[in-house]
Amino acid sequence: MSKVRKPIKSMVIPQMSSEDGGMRWDRSISLPGMDYLDPVLVFEHFSRTDDFDRYFHKTQKRYAGMQMISYLLAGKYHYRSAKKEIGTVTSGSLLWVKSAAGVDLEEVFETDQNLLEGFQIWINLPASQKETVPEFIQVNQPQIPTIRQNDGSMIRVLIGTFHQTQGVIVLQQPTINLYELLIPPYASFSFESSFDTSMVYLYQGRGYFGNYEEQEDVMATRHKLLIYGEGDYILIRTEETPMRLLYLSGEAIREPVARYGSFVMNQPEEIKKHFPKS
């Protein structure tokens, strides 16, 4: 039986969720009409604006019942938890936080050579993992496996596995794959994509991503999230312009979701215990 190229199911133009203190946050998931794409809760692309000084202090915040991925393209991201996990994520590096039973996290963003850009992605946890012990894993740029193909394409395995190459972080509850893809001009890049949810976020360049509604092999430009439908593999083509994008896929959890800000449980009554005690 021949394999089927995945079509594009939805094309999402990010909406600015906030612009404060010189930082802009553009959100593609957790929007009206795209509130939750199991298991992805939030997908945000952040960057500095012209009035950014050097530091942006994100007030201390409590997270519970989910996991958060912070991936930095440029700049610095400092974090400190109430349990004394502390570190600095630099360009090309990432931090994975399993908030589970609850994490109080202070976050500070800093420019590096006047640059600051990256992503924050929230992934749900199944009920069996929501009250477990929180975890932190920081993966620095030299630790991230990089695959270079003959046509010049480059794949950075941020989380999960690409073919036989395994990243430092392998998530199985739910299973998640997150890659950064750099595709040169006049290239055709394909890979298997079998999970329930799969998407690409194009943040530099333009190219062709697959059939969309009545259009064949539709072209997309930067700052768009493309959500794929059913099929076996994804095929991406470029012409004269190279591309940089994130690919994210995950196994659906298929459980009820109750949300209040950064608290994610299965039932509304479970959220109350995470409110600060008065």
Offer a quick outline of the entry.
This protein has 278 residues and is an all-beta fold. The protein contains one helix and 27 strands. It has one helix spanning 268-271; strands at residues 8-12, 15-20, 23-29, 40-48, 55-63, 66-74, 76-81, 86-90, 94-98, 103-110, 117-124, 135-139, 146-148, 154-159, 161-162, 165-166, 171-172, 175-183, 188-192, 197-204, 206-208, 219-221, 224-228, 233-237, 243-250, 258-260, 263-265.
Large-scale geometry = globular
- Regions with pLDDT < 50 over 5+ consecutive residues? none
Q: Which percent range fits the helix content? A: under 10%
Question: How many H/I helical runs?
Answer: 1
| Count of DSSP strands | 27
> Terminal Cα separation, in Å?
62 Å
- Class from secondary-structure proportions: mainly beta
The amount of beta strand, in percent, is over 45%
* CATH hierarchy, class: Mainly Beta
Radius of gyration: 19 Å
Number of domains: 1
Structure commentary:
The chain has 278 residues and is mainly β. It has a single domain, classed as Jelly Rolls (Sandwich), CATH 2.60.120. It is built from 1 helix and 27 strands. Strands 1, 13, 14, 17, 18, 20, 23 and 25 form an 8-stranded antiparallel beta sheet that branches. A hairpin with a 5-residue loop joins strand 13 and strand 14. The longest helix has 4 residues. The chain is globular and about 55 Å long.
Can you tag this structure with a few keywords?
eight-stranded antiparallel sheet, mainly beta, 1 helix, Jelly Rolls, 1% helix, seven-stranded antiparallel sheet
